[in-house]
Amino acid sequence: KIMFFCALSLCTAKVGKTSLIMSLVSEEFPDEVPLRAEEITIPADVTPERVPTHIVDYSEAEQSDEQLYQEISKANVICIVYSVNNKMSIEKVTSHWIPLINDRTDKDSRVPLILVGNKSDLVEHSSMETILPIMNQYQDIETCVECSAKNLKNISELFYYAQKAVLHPTGPLYCPEEKELKPSCIKALTRIFKVSDLDNDGVLNDNELNFFQVKTCFNTPLAPQALEDVKNVVRRNMTDGVKANGLTLKGFLFLHTLFIQRGRHETTWTVLRRFGYDDDLELTQEYLFPIVKIPADCTTELNHNAYLFLQSVFDKHDKDRDCALSPEEVKDLFKVFPYMPWGPDVNNTVCTNDQGWITYQGYLSQWTLTTYLDVQRSLEYLGYLGYSIIYEQESQAAAITVTRNKRIDLQKKQTQRSVFRCNVLGARGSGKSGFLQAFLGRNLQYQRRIREDHKSLFAISTTYVYGQEKYLLLHEVMPDFDFLSEADLACDVVCLVYDINSPRSFEYCAKVYKQYFIDSKTPCVVIATKSDLHEVRQHYSLSPHEFCRKHKLHPPQPFTCNSTDAPNKDIYTRLTTMAMYPHNRLRCMCACNRCTYCLCQNLLKLELLRNIKAQLRRVVFNRHMAQADLKNSTFWLRASVGATVFAVLGFAMYRVLLKQR
């Protein structure tokens, strides 16, 4: 909304503000001019910036002060009109109108002002010498335009500058007194530079500049000569603006300073808005948190493109190419963030190398964990890294896959999910934390060196189930039997952990199972930790083995992380398998021939044998029909040998397949 004020009192000759409005609309000077023009709306399709514009006139003769104050509060830009041939009108700009407007607007959100010198057709000189000191005194003044309503001089330009003052304001970007960019603008442009520096070498080479020009902001490539001209402009004005024939951060900032000084604010604003910034140079909520609808019983995962993007970010910052991020490299990666998103607990949530640095696999695991637990946080992080810009997506939501409802997975007995959650429950001291850390390949000796304030309740890494890579997320649930939240119960598989060396440890597992999981479809596994120690009798009515047998659970699985090498990880693969195929429960480890798995395997075995026999019969029959004229014994001997070999190979294949399962 553009508001026009007359800079004169009623007793002084009119300055022509209403004439300006009517000349714009009719494209001719009006013969009769009313005291005030009605509000006019200019459609978006006839304006240079493609935005609808409302023009509001004000007249002291027809409107009250209260109406004036209301219009000031609603205006996006205010044009103060003075007459270039009347000094009193210029004086009233500073003595009356600007103080009045400033008193009625908040200091932190001042409305941009445009000074309009009308009736330039009546004088041969310019008023700019008088106006420039006023512009330097008041930062809210965006620009000054001299025009004439009578001969239509600069009328269209006036309204263009009014729109530009709203859409591309100078105030947030540039300090005219210091003649330099404001700190908030430097911060935003620095992030944009780092996101655009795809190889992280500190300069924007020609490919990166063209990618920035075409893919991110302006949809137009720069010719090689144009690129060289841009770099030459920087070279002439500063010594360290160009390095290795690429644009440095200082050179990048200088170019934007030059754009603003030359009145091309829209160039800088186009860049800022493409990278998600609002008028206050803050990343917008719409950019950081796009809407992702997640139905009940569905989970969130990163898709293939998201992993490719994160891989490129990792490679960009892994300067020593050791497939791990040192603390300095992690800090450099998160320089585009307003805060450090990963704390020291992350190093105990994912896999690290011998130096305690997050590995490539650990890095992807942490992103997977964040997306699963808090997808909005993951979207925010991807926004800071510029995912939607680099991959030319509408928003970061394109990086997220919402999985199918778990009930459908159960009905179809198959899943396309890649991340599975295992909640680990047990009494205090039962070995839950050790079980989590062992998943990351850490034995008891390593775990003892972990600081208490650096410990994590989560551990995530990959396992392979039938050749497919899957993520298993372990969550240590704090032992509070009286209250377990929905988050504590919502998972794909449950681990009930007890210490075989503590007589009261199993009691907690038994009570939790009977209270929360006895009628649940969630698979459960009992883990007997510290199996390297002496096993004592548990103070419970049933022994762990008897309890498992009674409730049709598999026998307690022995586990220890007190070893010189990395702990055995077979149990984690079994847990992932159990989470993927809950209808089959867990792979049978007891050969009981009674559980679902064993019965299925027996059926498979019989089916396989039937198929082998049928195949043999077909081979013999086909050979007989094809060579019916061969009656000699040599043929039948060969046929018999061939059938025997085929049977042996078929049985061997069956054994291999069974072993893999």
Descriptive report:
It is found in: Mitochondrion outer membrane. It comes from Scophthalmus maximus. It is a single-pass type IV membrane protein. It catalyses: UTP + H2O = UDP + phosphate + H(+); ATP + H2O = ADP + phosphate + H(+); GTP + H2O = GDP + phosphate + H(+). With 661 residues, the chain is of the alpha/beta class. 44% of the residues lie in helices and 14% in strands. It contains 25 helices and 21 strands. It is elongated, with a radius of gyration of 37 Å. Mean pLDDT is 85; it is low at 4-13 and 586-601.
End-to-end gap: 70 Å
Radius of gyration: 37 Å
Strand order of the largest sheet: 2-3-1-4-5-6
Question: What is the typical, i.e. mean, pLDDT?
Answer: 85
Low-confidence stretches: 4-13, 586-601
- Based on secondary structure, the structural category is alpha/beta
Strand portion, in percent?
5-15%
Structural topology:
Blueprint: E1 2-6, H1 17-26, E2 40-42, E3 53-57, H2 65-74, E4 77-83, H3 87-103, E5 113-118, H4 128-137, E6 141-146, H5 155-167, E7 174-175, E8 180-181, H6 183-196, E9 203-204, H7 206-218, H8 224-237, E10 242-243, E11 246-248, H9 249-261, H10 265-274, H11 285-288, E12 300-302, H12 304-317, E13 324-325, H13 327-333, E14 358-359, H14 360-373, H15 375-385, H16 387-390, E15 400-402, H17 406-412, E16 419-426, H18 432-439, H19 444-447, E17 458-465, E18 468-476, H20 486-489, E19 493-499, H21 505-517, E20 524-529, H22 544-550, E21 557-558, H23 570-580, H24 596-626, H25 633-660
Parallel strand pairs: 1-3, 1-4, 4-5, 5-6, 16-18, 16-19, 19-20, 20-21
Antiparallel strand pairs: 2-3, 7-8, 9-11, 10-11, 12-15, 13-14, 17-18
Helix pairs in contact: 9-10, 14-15, 24-25
Subcellular location: Mitochondrion outer membrane
GO molecular function: calcium ion binding; GTP binding; GTPase activity
Catalytic activity: UTP + H2O = UDP + phosphate + H(+); ATP + H2O = ADP + phosphate + H(+); GTP + H2O = GDP + phosphate + H(+)
